[in-house]
């Protein structure tokens, strides 16, 4: 397991209108292994709602990173993490159609644009 020696990020609230397409911004470019489509990743992350800036989830708050195959995640993560390198920190702004679908989809985050800051700890 990699140790980035980073602490929980403060998500910079983007402001303005929510984007209609995925926005990817590298905050720190890593120099380790590269995440690949369909691969497995270990990450720390923070998620906030675009409109309110309210945090809805954070692996940092649970005190442990999580590991999973990309194919099991929302489309915004499947599209936004590949190409990222271990040691990197990336911000993804994900519109509803690449997150949890439209409002009324049955998910509490349906219809919402989401902002994630993701630290890539490992990729295989």
Automatic annotation (TrEMBL):
GO molecular function: peptidyl-prolyl cis-trans isomerase activity
Protein family: Belongs to the FKBP-type PPIase family.
Enzyme class: isomerase
Residue span(s) of domain PPIase FKBP-type: 38-124
PROSITE patterns for the chain: FKBP_PPIASE
Protein name as it appears in the record: Peptidyl-prolyl cis-trans isomerase
Keyword Isomerase: yes
